[in-house]
Amino acid sequence: MARYIFITGGVVSSLGKGLASAALGSLLQARGFSVRLRKLDPYLNVDPGTMSPFEHGEVFVTDDGAETDLDLGHYERFTGVPARNTDSVSSGRIYSNVLEKERRGDYLGKTIQVVPHVTNEIKDFLSVGEDEVDFMLCEIGGTVGDIEGLPFFEAIRQFSHDKPRGQCIFMHLTLLPYLAASGELKTKPTQHSVKELQSIGIAPDVLVCRSEHPIPEKEREKIALFCNVRKECVVAAYDLKSIYEAPLAYHEQGLDQAVLDAFDISPAPGPKLDVWHDVYDRIHNPDGKVKIAIVGKYTQLEDAYKSIAEALTHGGMANRVKVKVEWVDAELFDEGDATPYLEGFHAILVPGGFGERGTEGKIKAAQFAREKKIPYLGICLGMQMAVVEAARNVAGMEKAGSEEFDHEAGKKRFEPVVYHLKEWVQGNHTVARKAGDDKGGTMRLGAYNATLTEGSHVAQIYGGTAIEERHRHRYEVDTKYRAALEEVGLQFSGMSPDGKLPEIVEWKGHPWFIGVQFHPELKSKPFAPHPLFADFVRAAVEVSRLV
Ligand code: GLN
Questions:
Q1: Is 18 exposed, middle or buried (0-12, 13-18, 19+ CB in 10 A)?
Q2: Cα–Cα distance for residue pair 151/115, rounded to 1 Å
Q3: Residue-wise pLDDT tens digits, 41-64
Q4: Which of the residues are catalytic?
Q5: How many A from CA of 352 to the centre of ligand 1?
Q6: Which of 404, 422, 516 best tests ligand 1's pocket when mutated (most atoms within 8 Å of CB)?
Q7: Which stretches in the chain have pLDDT values below 50?
Q8: CA 62 from centre of chain
Q9: CB of 38 closer than 6 A to ligand 1?
Q10: pLDDT, position 362
């Protein structure tokens, strides 16, 4: 049965709990253990699928089609373990399950309460797959003391109580603020945060203290004493140049050792950290630099395109170059000329997105890349807009557009080269959708196979013709226009296995112009960069050498 590590946070949000959890997961793997990471989010949305990326950052999609928190992306990037829909849950999902059971009569007339019904539902979620791995790392979103997080904290307290002694530990992240005036790190907020945790019956075994300055021995002793934690279990977390330094940095600070000690695992197998040393080396010793524009809508919040930014970094690591990403707001040239905004970049990436705002700018970005022969990677909406661009400007369909925007505007302005997908095949069954369906969880979601055309650019990049990638979209390029577009050189080089859904398009005769209906960024890892990103950055390096 798995040992459980519960990761909580206090004092402030955004301390990097997700990253600490992911790094710890990778360190336990480096010591030969198997791990699975899980996220419990206190908000009431059933999942983040319906949240604006401005609010919550990117939605991370799993192979089995769950729309989850972006922390699951960190988990995958650090451990390589594909997340499942049973690895992410919110209060909304828990309550919705409980209420569904209540309506069905499953509770046999009982009064339904937070304790035990909601907490039991959370405990059931925690138990899924407990026999499959050595360690289950469960991160609780938010900070201790938040009203909405209470049922989760109560559930993990009960859970550890239900298990044999030594089966569960608690790791708590806090902040040590630095007062410049007195030149001191302050421990009081940490003490209060631990007190808050203790007041709900949880005593932390390991404290991870974020700090911008080295933690003096004296302060470490003080924290240990007041928070009732062993001194070796007060682990410092300093700011890092790159998130991929986290496994080595946490190892140096003794996090994995503290965790193994807390479980009484002795002697602990030594860690094999070669992979992370190589990652470190590639990040810190680049041989050149490329500048890539991400032309999107959610440019004020970088977390909105988290996986794309990370995948570009991985692509840079594959080529030993630093990728300098610049966020360009597509709306800036919805009407005017794109050239002043896009000149000077070595490659252009148009990411996924929803809604019409900024799409004319994205179409211009695709046109600019096509005409100037700059490497272009269009992802999901970025592919759809590249197809619209080809239809309008090359194939002579002036009115080409996406049905998505006509739906939004309640008008019929466009010839829908991108249409509302209402039926598709998943495994051995057909999925059906209709206009007006719920917004949550109804897109074409998760991993689907695609077949690539032999001899195409993408087949060469992937090194094969059978791929599986993750999807998240409602609209689709219409094969009705395939012949007309191929005639002018836009090749449909990847299709769903039944040949009905275009998965990839590429311009013949262009050095690097690829649009993909799926999200390759979700599967890229620092130690295994996605081939499309690795080759896209390689193409950008070539452009950088020409100028
Ligand atoms: N809005 C488009 C669709 O639903 C693209 C989605 C995306 O880019 N993820 O098809």
A1: buried
A2: 8
A3: 999 988 888 888 777 789 999 999
A4: 380, 519, 521
A5: 6
A6: 404
A7: none
A8: 9
A9: no
A10: 96
DSSP for 15-36, written as a single string: S-HHHHHHHHHHHHHHTT--EE
Q: Which helix (H) or strand (E) segment is 340 a member of?
A: helix 339-342
Give the residue whose CA is nearest to atom 1 of ligand 1.
354
Q: Among the atoms of ligand 1, which is closest to the Cα of residue 351? A: 8
Give all domains of the chain, ordered by start, each with its CATH number.
Answer: 3-279 (3.40.50.300), 286-546 (3.40.50.880)
Task: Please state, for a pLDDT cut of 90, what percent of the chain lies above it.
Answer: 86
Nearest of 372, 298, 370, 291 to residue 330 by alpha carbon: 298
Neighbours of 210 (CB within 10 A): 22
Q: Where are the alpha helices (DSSP H) in 359-425?
A: 359-372, 381-393, 403-409
**475 ligand 1 Cβ < 6 A:** yes
Answer whether 159 contacts ligand 1 (Cβ < 6 A).
Answer: no
Task: For residue 448, report the distance from its CA to the centre of ligand 1, in Å.
Answer: 16
CA atoms within 13 A on the CB side of 89: 27
Query: Distance between CA atoms of 397 and 48, rounded to whole angstroms?
Result: 37
Q: Is 472 in the pocket of ligand 1 (CB under 6 A)?
A: yes
